[in-house]
Amino acid sequence: MTTPLPPTDPTAPDAQLPGEAELAALYRQLPRSEPDPALDAAVLHAAAQALAAGEHPLAVERRRGPRERGDWVRPKDQPLPNLDEVGVAPRRRTPPWLLGLGSAASLVLVAGLAWHLYRQPASVPATPASDAADTVAAPAADRPATAAAGVAAAKAAPPAETAPAAAPMAFHAAVEAQGVDPAQERELAAIRQLFAEHHDEEAQQRLEDFRRQHPQRELPEDLRLRLRQP
Amino acid sequence: MRWLFIAQDAHNLSDARRYALPSPSMDAAVDPDAMLMLAYARGDLAAFETLYARHRGMLYRFLLRSVRDPQRTDELFQETWSRVIGARARYQPQAKFSTWLLHIAHNLMIDGVRRQRPLADGDEAEVALAHLATPEREQPDHALSEFERRRHLQRAIEQLPEEQRTAVLLRLEQELSLEEIAAVTGVGRETVKSRLRYAMTRLREVLSE
Questions:
Q1: Which of B131, B181, B197, B202 to mutate to test binding with chain A, by most A CBs within 10 Å of its CB?
Q2: DSSP single-letter state for residue A217
Q3: Checking CA distances to A220, which of A49, A134, A150, B151 falls within 20 to 30 Å?
Q4: In whole numbers, what is the pLDDT of chain B averaged over residues?
Q5: Cβ–Cβ contacts within 10 Å for residue B77, how many?
Q6: Least confident among A126-130, B28-32, B48-52
Q7: Which among B40, B86, B201 has CB closest to A60?
Q8: For the complex shown, is ipTM > 0.95?
Q9: Do the chains contact at A33 and B15, CB–CB below 8 Å?
Q10: Which of B83, B85, B136, B177 has the highest number of chain A CBs within 10 A, making it the mutation to test binding with A?
Protein backbone atom coordinates (compact mmCIF):
# COMPACT_ATOMS: atom_id res chain seq x y z
CA MET A 1 0.00 0.00 0.00
CA THR A 2 1.55 3.27 -1.04
CA THR A 3 0.45 6.72 -0.18
CA PRO A 4 1.35 9.67 -2.38
CA LEU A 5 3.84 11.95 -0.69
CA PRO A 6 2.68 15.52 -0.28
CA PRO A 7 4.98 18.20 -1.67
CA THR A 8 7.89 18.68 0.68
CA ASP A 9 8.82 22.11 1.86
CA PRO A 10 12.10 21.96 3.78
CA THR A 11 11.59 25.45 5.14
CA ALA A 12 8.26 24.61 6.76
CA PRO A 13 8.47 24.81 10.53
CA ASP A 14 7.67 21.84 12.77
CA ALA A 15 4.20 23.08 13.67
CA GLN A 16 2.99 23.19 10.07
CA LEU A 17 2.79 19.55 9.19
CA PRO A 18 -0.43 19.15 7.24
CA GLY A 19 -3.42 18.09 9.30
CA GLU A 20 -1.43 17.72 12.45
CA ALA A 21 -3.65 19.90 14.62
CA GLU A 22 -6.76 17.87 13.84
CA LEU A 23 -4.97 14.58 14.42
CA ALA A 24 -3.43 15.81 17.65
CA ALA A 25 -6.83 16.90 18.94
CA LEU A 26 -8.34 13.54 18.17
CA TYR A 27 -5.34 11.72 19.54
CA ARG A 28 -5.70 13.55 22.85
CA GLN A 29 -9.17 12.04 23.18
CA LEU A 30 -7.79 8.52 23.07
CA PRO A 31 -7.84 6.62 26.35
CA ARG A 32 -4.96 7.74 28.50
CA SER A 33 -3.73 4.52 29.96
CA GLU A 34 -1.44 4.52 32.96
CA PRO A 35 0.92 1.95 34.42
CA ASP A 36 -0.42 -0.39 37.01
CA PRO A 37 0.13 0.66 40.67
CA ALA A 38 2.11 -2.51 41.20
CA LEU A 39 4.39 -1.45 38.37
CA ASP A 40 4.80 1.99 39.95
CA ALA A 41 5.67 0.37 43.25
CA ALA A 42 8.23 -1.90 41.64
CA VAL A 43 10.02 0.98 39.90
CA LEU A 44 10.04 3.20 42.98
CA HIS A 45 11.23 0.31 45.10
CA ALA A 46 14.10 -0.34 42.68
CA ALA A 47 15.05 3.33 42.78
CA ALA A 48 15.07 3.39 46.56
CA GLN A 49 16.93 0.12 46.80
CA ALA A 50 19.64 1.35 44.45
CA LEU A 51 20.23 4.38 46.66
CA ALA A 52 20.11 2.37 49.88
CA ALA A 53 22.52 -0.27 48.63
CA GLY A 54 24.84 2.33 47.14
CA GLU A 55 25.32 0.02 44.23
CA HIS A 56 27.66 0.93 41.49
CA PRO A 57 25.49 1.74 38.49
CA LEU A 58 27.37 -0.71 36.31
CA ALA A 59 26.45 -3.50 38.70
CA VAL A 60 22.78 -2.59 38.46
CA GLU A 61 22.46 -2.60 34.72
CA ARG A 62 23.71 -6.09 34.06
CA ARG A 63 22.01 -8.11 31.39
CA ARG A 64 19.23 -10.35 32.53
CA GLY A 65 20.01 -13.05 30.06
CA PRO A 66 23.09 -15.22 29.79
CA ARG A 67 26.37 -13.56 29.08
CA GLU A 68 26.89 -12.76 25.44
CA ARG A 69 30.00 -12.11 23.46
CA GLY A 70 31.03 -8.50 23.87
CA ASP A 71 29.41 -8.01 27.25
CA TRP A 72 31.47 -6.03 29.63
CA VAL A 73 32.58 -8.08 32.59
CA ARG A 74 33.83 -6.50 35.77
CA PRO A 75 37.48 -7.49 36.11
CA LYS A 76 38.53 -9.34 39.22
CA ASP A 77 40.75 -7.50 41.65
CA GLN A 78 43.88 -9.43 40.84
CA PRO A 79 47.14 -7.90 39.68
CA LEU A 80 48.42 -8.91 36.28
CA PRO A 81 51.29 -11.43 36.51
CA ASN A 82 54.77 -10.19 35.83
CA LEU A 83 55.86 -11.49 32.45
CA ASP A 84 59.47 -11.94 33.57
CA GLU A 85 58.40 -14.11 36.47
CA VAL A 86 56.25 -16.44 34.39
CA GLY A 87 59.05 -16.91 31.88
CA VAL A 88 57.58 -15.18 28.85
CA ALA A 89 60.44 -13.85 26.75
CA PRO A 90 59.94 -10.38 25.34
CA ARG A 91 59.54 -10.24 21.58
CA ARG A 92 62.82 -9.47 19.82
CA ARG A 93 63.06 -6.74 17.27
CA THR A 94 63.85 -7.87 13.70
CA PRO A 95 67.24 -6.54 12.51
CA PRO A 96 66.97 -4.04 9.64
CA TRP A 97 69.51 -5.80 7.38
CA LEU A 98 67.30 -8.89 7.39
CA LEU A 99 64.39 -6.87 6.09
CA GLY A 100 66.59 -5.45 3.28
CA LEU A 101 67.86 -8.87 2.29
CA GLY A 102 64.34 -10.27 2.22
CA SER A 103 63.11 -7.42 0.05
CA ALA A 104 65.99 -7.86 -2.43
CA ALA A 105 65.38 -11.59 -2.69
CA SER A 106 61.69 -10.98 -3.33
CA LEU A 107 62.51 -8.52 -6.11
CA VAL A 108 64.87 -11.00 -7.80
CA LEU A 109 62.24 -13.72 -7.60
CA VAL A 110 59.54 -11.51 -9.07
CA ALA A 111 61.83 -10.35 -11.88
CA GLY A 112 62.80 -13.95 -12.69
CA LEU A 113 59.19 -15.05 -12.83
CA ALA A 114 58.27 -12.14 -15.04
CA TRP A 115 61.14 -12.92 -17.44
CA HIS A 116 60.15 -16.57 -17.53
CA LEU A 117 56.53 -15.75 -18.28
CA TYR A 118 57.61 -13.27 -20.94
CA ARG A 119 59.78 -15.84 -22.70
CA GLN A 120 57.34 -18.75 -22.46
CA PRO A 121 54.91 -17.87 -25.31
CA ALA A 122 57.78 -17.68 -27.83
CA SER A 123 58.84 -21.30 -27.11
CA VAL A 124 55.36 -22.78 -27.49
CA PRO A 125 54.45 -23.77 -31.06
CA ALA A 126 51.31 -22.52 -32.75
CA THR A 127 49.48 -25.79 -32.20
CA PRO A 128 46.01 -24.41 -31.61
CA ALA A 129 46.03 -22.52 -34.92
CA SER A 130 47.04 -25.56 -36.96
CA ASP A 131 44.55 -27.73 -35.06
CA ALA A 132 41.82 -25.25 -35.82
CA ALA A 133 42.74 -25.26 -39.50
CA ASP A 134 42.42 -29.04 -39.52
CA THR A 135 39.11 -28.95 -37.74
CA VAL A 136 37.67 -26.40 -40.11
CA ALA A 137 39.00 -27.98 -43.27
CA ALA A 138 38.16 -31.61 -42.57
CA PRO A 139 34.33 -31.43 -42.45
CA ALA A 140 34.30 -29.48 -45.66
CA ALA A 141 36.25 -32.28 -47.29
CA ASP A 142 33.78 -34.90 -46.07
CA ARG A 143 30.77 -33.31 -47.68
CA PRO A 144 29.14 -34.83 -50.80
CA ALA A 145 30.42 -33.46 -54.04
CA THR A 146 27.56 -31.17 -54.85
CA ALA A 147 28.16 -28.05 -56.80
CA ALA A 148 27.90 -25.78 -53.80
CA ALA A 149 29.97 -28.09 -51.64
CA GLY A 150 32.55 -28.26 -54.36
CA VAL A 151 32.95 -24.51 -54.26
CA ALA A 152 33.18 -24.57 -50.48
CA ALA A 153 35.68 -27.39 -50.55
CA ALA A 154 37.72 -25.57 -53.14
CA LYS A 155 37.82 -22.52 -50.90
CA ALA A 156 38.69 -24.62 -47.87
CA ALA A 157 41.22 -26.73 -49.67
CA PRO A 158 44.31 -24.54 -49.33
CA PRO A 159 44.31 -24.59 -45.54
CA ALA A 160 43.46 -28.30 -45.61
CA GLU A 161 46.48 -28.97 -47.73
CA THR A 162 48.87 -26.79 -45.87
CA ALA A 163 47.65 -27.69 -42.40
CA PRO A 164 48.70 -31.35 -42.44
CA ALA A 165 52.19 -30.39 -43.40
CA ALA A 166 52.50 -27.76 -40.71
CA ALA A 167 50.63 -29.60 -38.00
CA PRO A 168 52.93 -32.60 -37.52
CA MET A 169 55.97 -30.35 -37.21
CA ALA A 170 54.32 -28.13 -34.71
CA PHE A 171 52.94 -31.06 -32.82
CA HIS A 172 56.30 -32.81 -32.74
CA ALA A 173 57.93 -29.78 -31.21
CA ALA A 174 55.25 -29.59 -28.58
CA VAL A 175 55.24 -33.26 -27.66
CA GLU A 176 58.99 -33.50 -27.59
CA ALA A 177 58.98 -30.70 -25.09
CA GLN A 178 56.47 -32.68 -23.03
CA GLY A 179 58.42 -35.98 -23.36
CA VAL A 180 55.80 -37.91 -25.40
CA ASP A 181 56.66 -40.95 -27.55
CA PRO A 182 57.58 -39.70 -31.07
CA ALA A 183 56.34 -42.95 -32.65
CA GLN A 184 52.83 -42.24 -31.38
CA GLU A 185 53.00 -38.75 -32.70
CA ARG A 186 54.14 -39.97 -36.10
CA GLU A 187 51.17 -42.31 -36.18
CA LEU A 188 48.80 -39.49 -35.27
CA ALA A 189 50.32 -37.29 -37.96
CA ALA A 190 49.85 -40.07 -40.49
CA ILE A 191 46.22 -40.43 -39.47
CA ARG A 192 45.75 -36.72 -39.93
CA GLN A 193 47.33 -36.95 -43.35
CA LEU A 194 44.90 -39.73 -44.31
CA PHE A 195 41.95 -37.66 -43.20
CA ALA A 196 43.25 -34.72 -45.17
CA GLU A 197 43.56 -36.89 -48.28
CA HIS A 198 39.98 -38.14 -47.82
CA HIS A 199 40.96 -41.71 -46.99
CA ASP A 200 38.45 -41.60 -44.18
CA GLU A 201 37.87 -45.33 -43.70
CA GLU A 202 41.54 -46.16 -43.39
CA ALA A 203 42.19 -43.16 -41.20
CA GLN A 204 39.28 -44.10 -38.96
CA GLN A 205 40.52 -47.69 -38.68
CA ARG A 206 44.04 -46.60 -37.78
CA LEU A 207 42.70 -44.11 -35.30
CA GLU A 208 40.65 -46.81 -33.55
CA ASP A 209 43.65 -49.12 -33.53
CA PHE A 210 45.75 -46.38 -32.03
CA ARG A 211 43.13 -45.81 -29.40
CA ARG A 212 43.09 -49.49 -28.48
CA GLN A 213 46.87 -49.74 -28.33
CA HIS A 214 47.37 -46.56 -26.33
CA PRO A 215 44.33 -46.13 -24.10
CA GLN A 216 46.23 -43.83 -21.73
CA ARG A 217 47.22 -41.44 -24.49
CA GLU A 218 44.97 -38.42 -24.66
CA LEU A 219 44.01 -37.80 -28.27
CA PRO A 220 44.30 -34.31 -29.74
CA GLU A 221 41.03 -32.47 -29.99
CA ASP A 222 40.70 -32.74 -33.79
CA LEU A 223 41.20 -36.52 -33.80
CA ARG A 224 39.05 -37.10 -30.74
CA LEU A 225 36.16 -35.47 -32.57
CA ARG A 226 36.62 -37.80 -35.52
CA LEU A 227 36.81 -40.95 -33.42
CA ARG A 228 33.61 -42.95 -33.82
CA GLN A 229 31.77 -43.47 -30.58
CA PRO A 230 31.23 -47.17 -29.70
CA MET B 1 26.44 14.25 13.65
CA ARG B 2 28.60 14.42 16.74
CA TRP B 3 27.73 11.99 19.53
CA LEU B 4 27.95 12.84 23.16
CA PHE B 5 28.54 9.93 25.42
CA ILE B 6 26.99 10.24 28.78
CA ALA B 7 29.02 7.39 30.14
CA GLN B 8 32.71 8.14 30.11
CA ASP B 9 33.93 4.77 31.24
CA ALA B 10 36.17 3.50 28.46
CA HIS B 11 35.74 -0.09 29.60
CA ASN B 12 32.01 0.07 29.10
CA LEU B 13 31.68 1.34 25.58
CA SER B 14 28.94 -1.03 24.50
CA ASP B 15 26.75 0.00 27.40
CA ALA B 16 27.63 3.62 26.89
CA ARG B 17 26.25 3.54 23.35
CA ARG B 18 22.86 2.69 24.77
CA TYR B 19 22.82 5.97 26.63
CA ALA B 20 24.31 8.13 23.93
CA LEU B 21 22.25 10.76 22.23
CA PRO B 22 23.01 12.88 19.21
CA SER B 23 24.15 16.34 20.12
CA PRO B 24 20.92 18.24 20.78
CA SER B 25 20.18 21.68 19.51
CA MET B 26 18.16 22.59 22.57
CA ASP B 27 19.49 24.04 25.76
CA ALA B 28 19.21 21.08 28.07
CA ALA B 29 20.83 22.83 31.01
CA VAL B 30 17.54 24.42 32.03
CA ASP B 31 15.53 21.21 31.80
CA PRO B 32 13.94 20.76 35.25
CA ASP B 33 13.77 17.02 34.72
CA ALA B 34 17.51 16.94 34.25
CA MET B 35 17.88 18.75 37.55
CA LEU B 36 15.68 16.15 39.21
CA MET B 37 17.74 13.37 37.74
CA LEU B 38 20.95 14.95 38.98
CA ALA B 39 19.40 15.33 42.41
CA TYR B 40 18.49 11.67 42.41
CA ALA B 41 22.04 10.77 41.42
CA ARG B 42 23.16 12.64 44.55
CA GLY B 43 20.83 10.52 46.68
CA ASP B 44 17.54 12.42 46.66
CA LEU B 45 14.83 9.77 46.30
CA ALA B 46 12.03 12.34 46.35
CA ALA B 47 13.49 13.86 43.20
CA PHE B 48 13.19 10.54 41.45
CA GLU B 49 9.61 10.13 42.62
CA THR B 50 8.74 13.50 41.14
CA LEU B 51 10.56 12.66 37.96
CA TYR B 52 8.79 9.35 37.71
CA ALA B 53 5.38 10.89 38.30
CA ARG B 54 5.98 13.36 35.48
CA HIS B 55 6.92 10.77 32.88
CA ARG B 56 5.31 7.49 33.83
CA GLY B 57 2.11 8.05 31.84
CA MET B 58 3.64 9.27 28.62
CA LEU B 59 6.28 6.55 28.62
CA TYR B 60 3.71 3.86 29.30
CA ARG B 61 1.41 5.03 26.53
CA PHE B 62 4.26 5.32 24.07
CA LEU B 63 5.32 1.76 24.78
CA LEU B 64 1.81 0.36 24.81
CA ARG B 65 0.84 1.93 21.50
CA SER B 66 4.11 0.90 19.97
CA VAL B 67 4.30 -2.75 21.01
CA ARG B 68 0.51 -3.24 21.49
CA ASP B 69 1.06 -5.90 24.13
CA PRO B 70 0.32 -4.97 27.77
CA GLN B 71 2.60 -7.63 29.23
CA ARG B 72 5.50 -6.67 27.02
CA THR B 73 4.76 -3.02 27.75
CA ASP B 74 5.10 -3.65 31.47
CA GLU B 75 8.43 -5.40 30.93
CA LEU B 76 9.80 -2.63 28.75
CA PHE B 77 8.51 0.06 31.08
CA GLN B 78 10.24 -1.50 34.05
CA GLU B 79 13.42 -2.18 32.10
CA THR B 80 13.56 1.42 30.88
CA TRP B 81 13.38 2.80 34.39
CA SER B 82 15.92 0.25 35.54
CA ARG B 83 18.32 1.60 32.96
CA VAL B 84 17.66 5.13 34.16
CA ILE B 85 18.32 4.10 37.74
CA GLY B 86 21.44 2.22 36.76
CA ALA B 87 22.85 5.11 34.77
CA ARG B 88 22.20 7.80 37.40
CA ALA B 89 25.86 8.27 38.31
CA ARG B 90 26.92 8.82 34.70
CA TYR B 91 23.98 11.00 33.75
CA GLN B 92 24.87 14.35 32.26
CA PRO B 93 22.13 16.65 31.01
CA GLN B 94 23.24 16.84 27.39
CA ALA B 95 19.67 16.42 26.15
CA LYS B 96 16.20 16.78 27.57
CA PHE B 97 15.49 14.07 30.08
CA SER B 98 12.34 12.98 28.25
CA THR B 99 14.31 12.58 25.02
CA TRP B 100 16.87 10.45 26.77
CA LEU B 101 14.18 8.38 28.46
CA LEU B 102 12.39 7.75 25.17
CA HIS B 103 15.67 6.96 23.47
CA ILE B 104 16.31 4.20 26.00
CA ALA B 105 12.78 2.89 25.63
CA HIS B 106 13.00 2.95 21.85
CA ASN B 107 16.28 1.01 21.87
CA LEU B 108 14.89 -1.59 24.24
CA MET B 109 11.81 -1.91 22.09
CA ILE B 110 13.85 -2.42 18.93
CA ASP B 111 16.09 -4.95 20.70
CA GLY B 112 13.04 -6.78 21.95
CA VAL B 113 11.48 -6.94 18.52
CA ARG B 114 14.69 -8.34 17.07
CA ARG B 115 15.48 -10.83 19.80
CA GLN B 116 12.29 -12.08 21.31
CA ARG B 117 8.93 -12.19 19.69
CA PRO B 118 6.95 -10.30 17.11
CA LEU B 119 4.61 -7.50 18.01
CA ALA B 120 1.09 -8.38 18.88
CA ASP B 121 -0.99 -8.30 15.77
CA GLY B 122 -4.59 -8.29 14.65
CA ASP B 123 -7.06 -9.52 17.21
CA GLU B 124 -4.61 -9.68 20.08
CA ALA B 125 -3.70 -6.02 19.68
CA GLU B 126 -7.30 -4.99 19.32
CA VAL B 127 -8.30 -6.80 22.49
CA ALA B 128 -5.40 -5.22 24.35
CA LEU B 129 -6.30 -1.73 23.26
CA ALA B 130 -10.01 -2.26 23.76
CA HIS B 131 -9.38 -2.93 27.43
CA LEU B 132 -8.06 0.57 27.92
CA ALA B 133 -10.29 2.82 29.93
CA THR B 134 -12.75 5.03 28.05
CA PRO B 135 -13.22 8.63 29.15
CA GLU B 136 -16.36 9.02 31.20
CA ARG B 137 -17.36 12.48 30.00
CA GLU B 138 -18.90 11.31 26.76
CA GLN B 139 -22.65 11.50 26.06
CA PRO B 140 -24.11 8.34 24.41
CA ASP B 141 -25.46 9.95 21.18
CA HIS B 142 -22.43 12.01 20.40
CA ALA B 143 -20.07 9.45 21.75
CA LEU B 144 -20.76 6.92 19.05
CA SER B 145 -19.27 8.93 16.22
CA GLU B 146 -16.43 10.18 18.37
CA PHE B 147 -15.78 6.65 19.51
CA GLU B 148 -15.71 5.46 15.92
CA ARG B 149 -13.31 8.17 14.91
CA ARG B 150 -11.01 7.37 17.79
CA ARG B 151 -11.23 3.72 16.96
CA HIS B 152 -10.37 4.44 13.34
CA LEU B 153 -7.44 6.55 14.44
CA GLN B 154 -6.19 3.83 16.76
CA ARG B 155 -6.45 1.22 14.05
CA ALA B 156 -4.80 3.44 11.49
CA ILE B 157 -1.89 4.11 13.85
CA GLU B 158 -1.54 0.39 14.47
CA GLN B 159 -1.40 -0.32 10.75
CA LEU B 160 1.33 2.19 10.04
CA PRO B 161 4.83 0.85 9.36
CA GLU B 162 6.84 0.64 12.54
CA GLU B 163 9.08 3.64 11.84
CA GLN B 164 6.14 5.85 10.94
CA ARG B 165 4.16 4.68 13.95
CA THR B 166 7.01 5.49 16.31
CA ALA B 167 7.45 8.92 14.77
CA VAL B 168 3.78 9.77 14.92
CA LEU B 169 3.44 8.56 18.51
CA LEU B 170 6.41 10.61 19.59
CA ARG B 171 4.91 13.60 17.83
CA LEU B 172 1.30 13.30 18.94
CA GLU B 173 1.77 11.77 22.38
CA GLN B 174 4.99 13.42 23.46
CA GLU B 175 4.76 16.51 21.25
CA LEU B 176 8.44 16.22 20.44
CA SER B 177 10.09 18.37 17.81
CA LEU B 178 11.54 16.87 14.66
CA GLU B 179 15.04 17.14 16.11
CA GLU B 180 13.98 15.39 19.28
CA ILE B 181 12.30 12.58 17.37
CA ALA B 182 15.44 12.29 15.26
CA ALA B 183 17.50 12.01 18.44
CA VAL B 184 15.24 9.34 19.91
CA THR B 185 15.03 7.20 16.80
CA GLY B 186 18.56 7.76 15.57
CA VAL B 187 17.71 9.05 12.09
CA GLY B 188 17.99 12.41 10.38
CA ARG B 189 15.54 15.27 10.74
CA GLU B 190 14.41 15.08 7.14
CA THR B 191 13.79 11.36 7.49
CA VAL B 192 11.59 12.07 10.50
CA LYS B 193 9.75 14.74 8.60
CA SER B 194 9.15 12.43 5.68
CA ARG B 195 7.90 9.65 7.95
CA LEU B 196 5.55 12.04 9.70
CA ARG B 197 4.19 13.35 6.41
CA TYR B 198 3.50 9.85 5.14
CA ALA B 199 1.96 8.81 8.43
CA MET B 200 -0.27 11.83 8.85
CA THR B 201 -1.43 11.68 5.26
CA ARG B 202 -2.41 8.06 5.80
CA LEU B 203 -4.18 8.84 9.09
CA ARG B 204 -6.16 11.67 7.49
CA GLU B 205 -7.16 9.39 4.65
CA VAL B 206 -8.47 6.79 7.05
CA LEU B 207 -10.40 9.34 9.07
CA SER B 208 -12.01 10.83 5.98
CA GLU B 209 -13.22 7.48 4.64
A1: B197
A2: S
A3: A150
A4: 76
A5: 24
A6: A126-130
A7: B86
A8: no
A9: no
A10: B85
More confident residue, A91 or B195: B195
| Three-class secondary structure of residue A105 per DSSP | helix
CB contact under 8 A, B14 and A51: no
Return the pLDDT at A73: 45
Contacts of residue A70 in chain B, CB cutoff 8 Å? Answer: 14
Please give the C-alpha separations between residue A107 and each of A95, A103, B63, in angstroms, as whole numbers. 19, 6, 66
pLDDT tens profile A80-106: 444 454 444 555 677 788 889 999 999
